[in-house]
Amino acid sequence: MTSTFSGIEIGKRGVVAHQQALNTTGHNLSNASTEGYSRQRVEMSAFEPIYLPGLNREETPGQLGQGTVIERIERIRDQLLDKRIIAQASGEGYWSTRDPYVRMMEQLYLEVGDNSMRSRMDAINAIN
Q: Which residue has the higher pLDDT, 88 or 73?
């Protein structure tokens, strides 16, 4: 037997879920011009139904729906682009760490011209 207010509760769940989706849409619109912002998407799913053993007959379904619920709010990003950014950032860290030591070596050896230790190491790294 279903509750007298089950229809109202199903309606309330739908309104609350869609209100959150509208809030997320407003959030996306207000941050559209923000640098580095990625859009968010609301994913909804069915709320856990009520299973009643007495409703397993052919003429009636075996469960009573409970409306909708928000499963998650997902940030939409390009995973390939994210991997490239991470790879470039780690490469930049390598070169920024290496640079002061190469400069110290150059000061030690005081090489002048295009035939310096730094230009030779850069040429070796360009080959690799």
A: 73
